[in-house]
């Protein structure tokens, strides 16, 4: 009888752990509710822009401009150059001279 109750407890604990793991893997990322619409959480602009501007000849200028674009769009394209189609807001921003603002 003692062995059976020990086996039953072990099975129940195993079931609890497997359910906890499956719930943690199936949850979606948390979003913020603004005006009834869900928005993705803010990204770390400092990290994303330092990665984006790592090969720039003028790193400080690149990083400052990138952070302004990131704050507005909440997006920075991957890589150190190009890929702007993955972040349309970032690609649409222009300077007063109608040149691309974001590096």
From TrEMBL:
Signal peptide: 1-20
InterPro entries: GASA
Pfam families in UniProt: GASA
Alphabetical keyword list: Signal
Family, per entry: Belongs to the GASA family.
Protein name per Swiss-Prot or TrEMBL: Cypmaclein
Gene that produces this protein: LOC113712110
């Amino acid at each position: 009888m003692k062995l059976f109750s020990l086996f039953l407890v072990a099975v129940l604990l195993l079931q609890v752990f497997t359910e906890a793991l499956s719930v943690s893997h199936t949850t979606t990322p948390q979003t913020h509710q603004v005006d009834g619409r869900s928005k993705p959480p803010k990204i770390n602009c400092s990290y994303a822009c330092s990665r984006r501007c790592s090969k720039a000849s003028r790193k400080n200028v690149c990083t400052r401009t990138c952070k302004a674009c990131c704050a507005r769009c909440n997006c920075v394209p991957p890589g150190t150059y190009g890929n702007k189609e993955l972040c349309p807001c970032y690609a649409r921003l222009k300077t007063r001279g109608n040149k691309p603002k974001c590096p």
